[in-house]
Amino acid sequence: MATTVTPSTLTVTLTETYQLNGVSYGNAQSKTITAQGQVDQRVMEIAGKGEEGLTFTNIIAFGAADEAGKVVKADYAYFRITNLDDTNNLILRLYNAVDYLYFNVEPSESFMLLSNEIDATTAAGVVSFADITEIAGASSSATASIDIEYIVVTA
Amino acid sequence: MATTVVAANCIVTVTESYDLNGVSYGNSKTKSFTSKGKILQRIMNVSTSDPAIINFGASDSAGQVTVGDYAYFRISNLDDTNFIMLTLYNGADSFFYKLLAGDTFLLMSNEMDAIASSTAFGAFADITKIKADADTAACDIEIMAVTT
C-alpha cells in the first residue's frame, strides 16, 4: 500500500504596493517550496485572555508524528496566521521548548514563518536556534474571542 | 512651509498557491496601511559581524525611522546559499530568527516580548533595533520600512 497523494509545490508571494511622491516602492517576493504533501488549514476561535493573567489557546503543535493538532516538526515548510477580527488583537506565542516569543498581531494583520528556527534572550548570550514546538494565541480582550485563520504546510 | 508629500496607502498582500490532492489550499490576505508618508527601501550588504540594519527611535535620522509612526517592515534574504541570523531587539529582549536563503520575514506590528526559559508573559515593547548577521559569508538583503 502507498499513499495516493502526490506532493506538490507551494508558492508564497508577498506583494507590496505603495506609491509615494511619484515613485513606486515595494516589491513582490516569491518563495517556492517543492514537494510538500501535508497541509492543515483552518479558521478557528481564540478565546479571550481572561480577566486575570493571560490564558492562551493552543493553535498548532510540532512533534514527531502527525496527530490531532500536531504536524511533523522535521517536515516544516511554512506557517501563516491571520487575525480575522476587526477590533481585538491576537497575542501570538511561539515556543521552541525553551523560550517563549510574543508578537502582537492587530486586526487583519498576518504573521508568517518560512523557517521554524528561533531563539530568545533577555540578556547577552550565545544564540542557540531550536525548532518551534508549539504556537498558541490569546485575544487581547479579556472576554471577547477572535477568529483566526492559519495554514501550515509540511513535506 | 509645509511638506509637499501626500501620504498614501501601502497595501501588503500575502498569497499562497498550493494544490494538493485535487484541492486548492491557501488564501490571499491583504492589509492596507492608510495615509503613510515615509518610506525606507534599501538593498544592502550585511557582513558576518552582525550589523544593525535599521533603528527605530524618537525621530528620523540616518538609519533610523520614527518608532511612534511604525506601520510595516519587511526583510528579504537575497542570497542564494547562506542564511542570515535576524535579531529583533525591543530595548530589553532579543528575538532571533533564521532567515534562510531566499526567505522573507515581515512585521505588520512592532510590538514583541521574548522570555527565555519561562512561561510568564512580561509586556510588549516596541522594537528599537533590527540586526542581520550573515552566516558564512556576506549576504545582500532588501529591507522596506513604512511609517506615517
Spatial sequence of strands, sheet with the most strands of chain A: 6-5-13-8-9
Please give the oligomerization state of what you see.
Answer: heterodimer
The CATH class of chain B: Mainly Beta
Any idea what the shape of chain A is?
Answer: globular
Mean pLDDT of chain A: 95
Shape of chain B: globular
> How would you sum up the major sheet of chain B?
5 strands, mixed
What would you say this structure looks like, in words?
The complex is a heterodimer of chains A (155) and B (148). With 155 residues, chain A is mainly β. Chain A has one domain: Jelly Rolls (Sandwich), CATH 2.60.120.10. Chain A contains no helices and 14 strands. In chain A, the strands form four sheets. Chain A has a five-stranded mixed sheet with strand order 6-5-13-8-9, with no helix packed on it. A four-stranded antiparallel sheet of chain A has the order 4-14-7-10, with no helix packed on it. The relative contact order of chain A is 0.28. Chain B has 148 residues and is mainly β. In chain B, the strands form four sheets. In chain B, strands 6-5-13-8-9 form a five-stranded mixed sheet, with no helix packed on it. In chain B, strands 4-14-7-10 form a four-stranded antiparallel sheet, with no helix packed on it. In chain B, strands 2-1-3 form a three-stranded antiparallel sheet, with no helix packed on it. Chain B is globular. The chains are: A mainly beta (155), B mainly beta (148). The interface between A and B is large, with 62 and 64 residues.
Which key phrases capture this entry?
heterodimer, A: about 160 residues, Jelly Rolls, five-stranded mixed β-sheet, about 0% helix, about 60% strand, B: about 150 residues, mainly beta
